[in-house]
């Protein structure tokens, strides 16, 4: 880029300068040539007139004395001069007395100048002299002058072109090149642009350009800085918002987990509710069927719970429900589940437990409850349970069938007088 730029500007300068100088010098040259030609012609006329006057004076005595011999010899000598083509001496009446023609005079081809002078003697006209001078010398002189002028013009044109080229190169192209290099350096190092200024000492348009560039560069830097500050501000705000969002998300997740937990938990006893129990039963049932493993379901219902409520109040009833929940939970394995189905009814799933194990577990539970002291607000409450037990069998091959079988067993326990456990099928 830089090479093209330098070449372009210098090239244009050379073309402009040389064209200007050639035109200028051509005009000056033509003018000088015309002047020189006029001067030479004037000089030729002046010297021709002088010569013919002197010749007339030389012939003055000779013409009065009719000295033909000397007139001829003088004419001969004059005719032999380089530029003389012809000399004619005439008497007072105009009759030619002597005439000499140069050896190389050919009137058809030669261009000539004619000079005349009156021959005077004692202040009176005694005859006349005509002198033809060749223009050849004049043409040679003009040609030489032309050549000299053209050579001078060409020499000065070349000299002036070089001078102007060098001066303009130094005064215009060099500062512009410097200007361009500095701009390039600044543009290629944008991060340092604030510290870099164009230092140009020219007090001209280039200097003005540098000042404008510096001011623009400053404005750009300030704008960048403002943008950076705004970006940083926005960034920190974003970070803070992000943090808040994280906290909010964590809170929401926590709340969601709680809601989920609440949705499947009985709020009074903190045991799983019916919904959770049904889901768990569905999973466990299919697993037990698939792997042919024993699964027992137990339904537990408080005997005459309505009476407890009615006699001792709802709070006493709640206490009994909570206390039973704790007892059930403490008596089952980690892998088993105990849920409150609603009201005073509970359910327990004993996975990989046979019907006898379930019966033994129920008997033990009945005994524990009988021995447990249910005391609320200083009053001891009598709490007993009825329990129905069923397991997966060929008959109970669906969840609904298992449910019904267990429910039937519970109903049978109630029917038989409560406070006991009954296995389905019963007799
Ligand atoms: N305190 C309290 N009582 C409840 C709650 N849910 C249901 N009950 C009461 O539990 C009682 C259940 O009574 P029933 O299902 O009629 O049966 P029961 O009195 O236990 O009689 P049997 O089951 O036949 O022995 C009703 O009086 C309900 O109002 C509860 O969350 N807290």
TrEMBL record:
GGDEF domain: residues covered: 293-426
Single annotated GO MF: diguanylate cyclase activity
Broad EC category: transferase
Name of a matching Pfam family: GGDEF
Recorded catalytic activity of this chain's protein: 2 GTP = 3',3'-c-di-GMP + 2 diphosphate
Transmembrane domains' residue ranges: 12-31, 154-173
InterPro entries according to UniProt: Diguanylate_Cyclase (IPR050469), GGDEF_dom (IPR000160), HAMP_dom (IPR003660), Nucleotide_cyclase (IPR029787), Rev_trsase/Diguanyl_cyclase (IPR043128)
Enzyme Commission number(s): 2.7.7.65
Keyword Transmembrane helix carried by entry: yes
One Gene Ontology term, aspect cellular component: membrane
UniProtKB keywords: Membrane, Transmembrane, Transmembrane helix
Record Gene3D superfamilies: 3.30.70.270, 6.10.340.10
Domain HAMP: 170-225
GO BP, sorted A to Z: signal transduction
Keyword Transmembrane helix tagged: yes
Name the record gives this protein: diguanylate cyclase
Classification of source organism: Bacteria, Pseudomonadati, Pseudomonadota, Betaproteobacteria, Nitrosomonadales
């Amino acid at each position: 880029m830089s090479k093209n730029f330098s070449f372009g500007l210098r090239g244009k300068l050379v073309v402009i300068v040389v064209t200007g100088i050639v035109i200028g010098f051509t005009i000056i040259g033509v003018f000088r040539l015309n002047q020189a030609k006029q001067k030479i012609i004037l000089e030729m006329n002046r010297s021709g007139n002088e010569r013919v006057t002197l010749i007339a004076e030389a012939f003055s005595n000779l013409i009065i004395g009719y000295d033909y011999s000397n007139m001829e010899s003088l004419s001969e000598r004059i005719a032999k001069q380089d530029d003389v083509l012809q000399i004619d001496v005439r008497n007072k009446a105009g009759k030619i007395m002597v005439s000499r023609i140069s050896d190389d005079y050919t009137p058809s081809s030669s261009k000539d100048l004619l000079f005349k002078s009156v021959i005077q003697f004692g202040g009176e006209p005694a005859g006349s002299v005509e002198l033809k001078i060749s223009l050849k010398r004049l043409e040679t002189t003009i040609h030489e002058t032309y050549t000299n002028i053209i050579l001078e013009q060409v020499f000065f044109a070349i000299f002036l072109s070089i001078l102007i080229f060098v001066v303009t190169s130094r005064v215009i192209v060099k500062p512009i090149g410097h200007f361009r290099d500095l701009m390039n350096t600044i543009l290629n190092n944008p991060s340092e642009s604030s510290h870099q200024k164009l230092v140009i000492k020219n007090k001209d348009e280039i200097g003005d350009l540098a000042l404008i560039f510096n001011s623009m560069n400053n404005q750009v830097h300030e704008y960048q800085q403002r943008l950076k500050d705004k970006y940083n501000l926005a960034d920190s705000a974003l970070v803070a918002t992000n943090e808040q969002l994280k906290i909010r998300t964590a809170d929401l997740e926590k709340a969601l987990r709680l809601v989920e937990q609440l949705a499947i938990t009985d709020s009074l006893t903190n045991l799983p509710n019916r919904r959770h129990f049904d889901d768990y039963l569905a999973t466990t049932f299919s697993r037990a069927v698939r792997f042919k493993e024993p699964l027992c379901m137990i339904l537990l219902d408080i005997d005459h719970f309505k009476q407890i409520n009615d006699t001792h109040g709802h709070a006493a009833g709640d206490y009994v429900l909570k206390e039973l929940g704790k007892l059930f939970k403490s008596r089952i394995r980690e892998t088993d589940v105990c849920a409150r189905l609603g009201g005073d009814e509970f359910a327990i799933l004993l996975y990989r437990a046979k019907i006898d194990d379930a019966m033994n577990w129920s008997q033990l539970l009945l005994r524990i409850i009988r021995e447990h002291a249910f005391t609320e607000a200083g009053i001891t409450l009598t709490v007993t349970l009825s329990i129905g037990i069923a397991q997966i069998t060929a008959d109970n091959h669906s969840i609904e069938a298992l449910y019904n079988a267990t429910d039937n067993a519970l109903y049978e326990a109630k029917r038989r007088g409560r406070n006991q456990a009954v296995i389905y099928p019963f007799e």
